Amino acid sequence: MQWDMRSRLAVTFCVGILLALAGTAAWPQSGRTIRLILPFPPGGPADVMARAVADQIGSSGGPTMVIESHPGAGTEIGTEYVSRSEPDGYTLGIVSNSFVVLPHMRKLNYDPLTDFVPICELASFPPLVVVNDDSPYRTFAELIDAAHKQPGMLTYATIGPATASEMAFEKLKRAAKVNLTFVPFAGYTPAVQALLGKQVTVAQADLATLQGQIEAGKLRALATLARKRVASLPGVPTIAEAGYPDAEAEFFGGVVTPAKTPKQMIAELTGLFSAAIKAPKVEAKFTALGFFAGGECGADFAAIIRKDDADYGRIIHDAKVKTE
């Protein structure tokens, strides 16, 4: 009888411990799939970034994550979907600079600064300014010199209108004091195709879109708008090195969760994504694609979002970018 009582006490104690652990760690062990909502068409840099991190988390024993593409309205559709989702840690949003550009362009049904909790910046994407290989412009300085001599005659293609890419274009115009004609496209790929077809003078896109054409000798990069050089293109100067530090621009890619998500789950998510970003496999893939690995999480990522929100608001106002 004495042993039976001890056994019962031991079992009760163990069950109590398990229940306590379940209360604090049920989320990563529940077997439920986490959905990452991508507000872009599949195949772009944000998609590649999200899949690399999600695969790393899954292969490291973390929860399974699937990417769901909800494109449209300049990322508004997918982002609004996340804002209306249950704040339980199972529906997350992939966001980029459009997250804080759109509120300055039109009225939305969500507020990026209050309706979401930033988890982590996963990576940033350095835009590249490129021309055809047979272009007469061998350097960025030559391009700007030609633009000064032919106001409005040179055309500049990138994603637009009302996008972070257009904001980068506006910054470049103002920093270099040139009149380039903006030609908007629905994505980087059609913008680059227009450049290859010699329908435009110059294009701005990410390395993942440009790499094949650069390696094939069809396009030549004149500068990166990023703060540092791209590892796989060491000979391409930064825009600051080209003489225009005020034209610097990088596009972040990160993860957010709906506001009111429990703090414990936010902490769990932050740990998962922070570890995945630092994994050698992910870092190697990001470097090959010309991405800069992120790692800023929580308050640090929130600070990036707030800064970009203020910067884009100022650019849109000063450049008198057309809003809806």
- Cα-based radius of gyration, to the nearest Å: 23 Å
Give the overall form.
globular
Low-confidence stretches: 5-27
Q: Using the coordinates above, name the CATH class of the largest domain.
A: Alpha Beta
Q: Whole-Å distance between the termini?
A: 80 Å
Overall number of domains: 2
Would you identify the CATH architecture of the largest domain?
Answer: 3-Layer(aba) Sandwich
Discrete helix count: 11
Tell me the CATH superfamily of the largest domain: Bordetella uptake gene, domain 1
Structure explained in plain terms:
With 324 residues, the protein is an alpha/beta fold. It folds into 2 domains: 34-124 and 250-318, Bordetella uptake gene, domain 1 (D-Maltodextrin-Binding Protein, domain 2); 128-247, Periplasmic binding protein-like II (D-Maltodextrin-Binding Protein, domain 2), CATH 3.40.190. The chain contains 11 helices and 11 strands. The strands form 2 sheets. Strands 2-1-3-10-4-11 form a 6-stranded mixed beta sheet, with helices on both faces. It has a 5-stranded mixed beta sheet with strand order 7-6-8-5-9, sandwiched between helices. Helix 6 links the parallel strand 6 and strand 7 (181-185). Helix 2 (45-59) packs across helix 9 (263-278) and helix 2 (45-59) runs antiparallel to helix 10. The radius of gyration is 23 Å and the shape is globular.
